[in-house]
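User: I'm curious whether this sequence folds into something compact or stays loose and floppy. Could you predict its structure so I can see for myself?
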Amino acid sequence: MAYKSLLFAALLVSVAASAQNPPLGATTGLGPGDKFSLFVTFQDPMPKIDSIGCAFNLTGNPQPGQEDFSRQVRCSGLTKDDDKHYHMQVVIPSNGIAGGDYKLVGIDLSIGSASRHYEGKELPDLAAVPITDHEHIKFSDIKKLETQK
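Assistant: Here's the prediction. I'll summarize afterward.
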């Protein structure tokens, strides 16, 4: 449990595109099926992390026709670069993702059976990740239901 006493005030989180994509910027849009990496730098060494996860949520409301689409993207995998530097892959779903700006809302960390959730002020500022999805779907209302014997 000693890891809980580590200071994370200087936790540095940055987003960079995977090797196939150019670096992300405030105006660089991503779309369904694209991926990027989330890099996490800890203030103090974290030599044994079993898993790290994260979630980016849509800020604001979905566009018309995307109300029923997913509004969250999550991290997967874990790569340890050294005792202070780790990164995860973020894959944008290939369909059904609401377009808009996605803000990092949390990072989950586990070591053995212990876990910690970082959110809000525990996370350094990170620009929202813009995602564009041109697909729109309008579900029809159900007009009538009945049963028969």
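Summary: DSSP finds no helices and eight strands in the chain. The two ends are 62 Å apart (CA to CA).
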